Structures are given as structure tokens and as C-alpha cells.
Amino acid sequence: MKKKTFVKAAGTALMAAALVFPQAGSFAPPSQAAAETLETQGFISYAELQKKLRQLEQTSGGKNSVDVAGSTNQGREIYTARVGTGDKVLLVQSEIHGNEKTGTVALLNILQKIGSSNSEAAKKIREEMTIVAIPMMNADASELDRRGNDMSWSEVTEQYPQLSSATPSWNYYTRVLQGDDYAANPGFDVNRDFHPDLDYVANAADFPGASNKPGWYITPEAQTVRDVYKDLMAEFGKVDVFMDMHHQGFPYVGDTGEIATMSISAQFVPDPATPEGDKYAQYANGYDYDFSRQLNVAVYDALQAKGDSVFTNISLYQQDLDLPGTALGSFALNGSGTVLFEVKGQTQNFGQKQKGMLVKTVETGLMGVINGVTDGTVYSLDPEKYEEIPESTY
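C-alpha cells predicted for Peptidase M14:
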């Protein structure tokens, strides 16, 4: 996969910025409502992301490297930020749904700390791990402040003529949904466009599909993440951990009556070694549900260590899922330990103070995984402790 580096491609950061970043006005601006939401909630726009990624490289002295991994359907570049040189690989992404933004802020904060700190802890992380972050995977949706990307079915069939007679996929939005008018500006739920066969090519016989069936890699955003994943597998032999940052509604923590600050999960497809997961039998040798559970326990323990506070309000997201079309489901079947973060609410629900607390929750959970993988303690955690985490109730 051809990549374009932010700074190394040119002699100076200024030259690199001119090469990499589009000129102002290259894209249609977000709606007024979306722009006001970003401004009042303190979340990061696409232009601000570019600025912060450039700063990451500069302030870390190159320990953070930023690359262009691909482009959205509307031509916005999809960036990866990488820190560390170790052989334990963590791939983490945020904003596969463009109105779920807390993870983006948290990722940038963590990259800054790990890349710029000279502490022994930061040095150890950089020595043991290679962390690759995709902080704004679905930039078109982020600018529109909505869930789905910005792509029509006709654009799909233009790229894949073999689909011209197919029924549009089930995850194609063409109506008003969650207040967003997809009828005027259609798009896809990109987090249903993944397939455990990383070399899969769209086939008309597989459409329109369903939520419990694989996706198709028809969106450039899903293709980009797939390619990043494949490149890391080629480089390291394995992507040890994959984490995905999301938002949810307002479930309760078990029967406590407390609203969950965040829900987590390790389970996205049935175990290929069980009768329920027999259709995934070809992936049985790589699938490691126990490791995914250990990673989630590391998240839970890190948050509980904060004491009696909102950080303890953690629940398990819905279990017994069969979602091979999600990035989490597809990559779990390919051998990665997986962790889902579902922060409460949506971006429009909160102001600056609440947002800051939620960002800190995500940072704490992420660092629980990073520290546990770095020092090896995650591998000794009891995976059965995962089953003791209270499930979400509604």
C-alpha cells in the first residue's frame, strides 16, 4: 500500500504541510449545525486534526510518525499516527461513525504523551510496542457530524460494475435517520463493510447481506483500514490487539440503576470452535477469545483503580453477537485480541466538562491495555473475570 508521510516527504514541516494538506475550500464545509456542535462541544474537526497531527510529529522529535493511509469517498485523507518500535502491535481507530468523537481526542492525547515523554514508562512502551492509531477513520461523516459516510450506491457500482444488478446493501442509508437526511445525501454504515476474508472482492450474490453476515469492502474507508491491518500483518506477522472507539445510548450497569459511563466488550462473533460458530471454522486456529477477555479485564481494572467515581460505572456491552461485518468481528477472526469502547451518549449530549470526563475515561481504559501489554501482566489475567463484569441493561 502506497503511503505518504507528513514530514519526511519534504525538507521542512511547512513544505510537507503544503504537500499533504488540501487548500482551504477544497471540500464542502460541514452544515452550520454540525459546525456549531463541534465548536460548542470542543471536539476536533478535520482541519484541527491535521494541525494536531503535524504538531505530534514536531513535538515528539519524530517518535510519532504520521502517514496518509488512504482517502475517504469525498477525498479527505485518512491518517495513521504511529509510535513505538516494539513487536507487540496495537491498532486502534476512532470515528468509524462520524458523530462518535471522544476517542479521537483521547488518542491524540495518548500519542502525545507516549511520543514526547522521556519517562522510563514511556520509553518502555515505545520499546515493547508499536501503536498505530487511525484517529478519524470516517472524516466525511465527522465533518457532517453523522454516523454514515458520504457515498451513493451509484458510486459503488461505478467502482464495482459487477454490482450493477445487485440490490443495495442493507447498511445503505437513504432516509432520515437520527435527524440526518440521508435521502438528500446517502451513505453507508462503514462499520458493517468488513469481511474476515481480507482479500474478498465484492460479489453481487452476497447482496444485500444482513447484520449477521460479512460485509464487502465497498467503501474506501473500510478498504483503508483493511489495508492498514494487512500491512501490519505483513510487517509483524500479527496484529496483537485491535481496539475500536464508539459511543452508545444510556444503558445501566446491571441492576445498579447507575448509567454506564462506558461499556466494553470482547465478543463480536461466536467462537469458531463451537457449533454456533461452525461457519467460521476456517478461522478457528487464530481466534483467541480468552485473550480478548483478558484485554477487557485490563480495561476494567484500570478504570476501577480510579476509586469510587464515574470511572467505576463500566458495563459489558451486549453479548452473544454475530457481527462478522464489523471491523472488530473480522479482525478477531484473523487472530487479534479485540476491545470495544462504547462511551455513553453522543457528541451532542454533552458540554466541555462532561466531554473532558469521558475523554479521560477512554484514555484510562486505553492505557490499561497499553500498560498491560507492555509489561506482560495482561497475559496472566484470569479471562473468567470478564464474566463478572455487570452487563448493560436498558
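Confidence is low (pLDDT under 50) at residues 1-40.
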